[in-house]
Specification:
alpha+beta, Heat Shock Protein 90, 3 domains, six-stranded mixed sheet
């Protein structure tokens, strides 16, 4: 039965918007103020023409007019992020004062719409500033308290909605106020809260990605340091082995000793080649190769120059137009070549199939071998750092781990599927870099 494992990584996302919480609140406050001005105009029209309430409509009409006019600069001008909190707080202070004036001119404590003060306090709380929140709360409480002294009683609020009815206008106004507060908090403030939570989640995702990149940088630094530190002693060993081999060949006392010396020199040269390759890859990862990759370049990268004689066992399929841009060459090398190397080694003499496709701005590479495969237990741990099933000295267990880090750094993913005794399929996908 086939096993499958996905090495989890976030799907490509849009870049995080450089918008502060205050900027988000201000962005939603602007349409809310226009809606508030329109709602006040509707309420005044209903009071005048529907209820024929005796109110100073000329003074009351100033409130929606000032609200709308003061909102226009917030629409036309781009507020710098560092000033968003101050601008939003100023708008909330103005709205609280205007609303207090509106209540004072329309019944003061008798006006049932005083519950709308809660909207101003809630918007201030979303700014994340305790000083602004307490300031708006204190201003609302003080404004409402002053109305007890300076208000003009409007007893029509306690009259019935309709002649002979039992429902008072005050009770109906309280219901409308509660409904307005509930709708605004549920919709506008709920949207702001969800946006802020999404922003925090995005920041956490970027923090995790930065931590993985830091681990990748540590690994590449380790490789470069190992190449630098071990290069000199290995060079010395190579010189000694060469001299030993020459001396033994001249004196020829023990043929086996000469063979051992030659083997020693061969293994040292092999180690130096591996370390040179590690050093070159570390430098490439540190600096990045900005050269673009096209569909024609893929066959070159999967040819004998990179893979040696084993490249003849590759069956490459490219599902992309010949001139299509496939991102950066360094990205392809860092993600795909280790997977191909692993498949060639696992399949030994069997062919390895590689399919490269371009789908909706994302490159997908599928590498399929016919090796011995992996059991579900091994597949579950594949990609863990320093986990390997190879004999000691044949691998460090970092190959898939580094490939996964590269894929996640690019905003992509790495998935593995494997069936024991039938082979393994590796799927790497990442967005094409411009």
């Amino acid at each position: 039965m086939m096993g499958a494992m996905s090495l989890p990584s976030p799907e490509p996302r849009a870049p995080l918007a450089a918008e502060s919480p205050a900027g988000l609140v201000l962005r939603w406050l602007v349409p809310l103020r226009f809606i508030a001005a329109a709602g006040q105009c509707v309420a005044l029209s209903v009071a005048r023409y529907g209820l024929e309430a005796p109110l100073p409509y000329a003074q009351l009409a100033l409130v929606p007019a000032i609200t709308a006019l003061s909102n226009l600069p917030l629409v036309w001008l781009r507020v710098p992020p560092e000033r968003a909190s101050g601008v939003a707080a100023s708008a909330l202070v103005l709205d609280t004062l205007l609303f207090t004036f509106l209540l004072q001119q329309s019944g003061g404590p008798d006006n049932p719409f005083s519950a709308i003060y809660a909207i101003h306090v809630a918007m201030a709380a979303m700014l994340g500033s305790g000083r602004v929140t307490w300031g708006i709360a204190a201003l609302s409480a003080a404004g409402y308290a002053l109305m007890f002294h300076w208000h003009e009683p409007r007893h029509f609020w306690h009259g019935p909605v309709s002649e002979g009815g039992s429902l008072q206008l005050h009770a109906l106004g309280m219901w409308v106020a509660v409904a307005v507060v509930a709708v605004v908090i549920t919709f506008f403030i709920g949207r702001i809260a969800r946006t802020l939570r999404a922003r925090e989640a995005e920041l956490r995702r970027i923090g995790e990605l930065a931590a993985r990149n830091a681990r990748l940088a540590s690994l590449t630094t380790l490789a470069a340091g190992a190449a630098h530190e071990l290069g000199s002693p290995l060079g010395t060993i190579a010189v000694i082995a060469r001299d030993l081999s020459r001396a033994v060949e001249e004196r020829a006392p023990l043929p086996s000793l000469a063979d051992d010396a030659k083997l020693l020199r061969s293994e040292v040269e092999r180690c130096r080649t591996i370390l040179d390759r590690m050093s070159g890859r570390a430098e490439q990862l540190a600096g990045g190769d900005p050269s673009p990759l096209t569909a024609e370049d893929v066959r070159e990268l999967l040819g004998p120059k990179e893979l040696g004689p084993a490249a003849c066992r590759l069956l490459v399929e490219i599902a992309a137009p010949p001139g299509a841009q496939l991102g950066l060459r360094s990205d392809f090398q860092a993600v795909v070549l280790p997977l191909v190397h692993n498949s060639l080694e696992a399949s030994r003499a069997a062919p390895v199939r590689v399919r490269v496709a371009l789908d909706g701005g994302q490159i997908e590479v599928r590498v399929r071998d016919e090796g011995h495969g992996m059991s579900p237990e091994v597949l579950e741990r594949a990609g863990e750092p320093f986990f390997t099933t190879r004999p000691p000295g044949r691998g460090t267990g970092l190959g898939l781990f580094v490939v996964r880090l590269h894929a996640e750094r690019l905003g992509g993913k790495l998935e593995l599927e494997s069936t024991p005794d039938r082979g393994t399929t590796a799927l790497a996908a990442w967005p094409v870099a411009p």
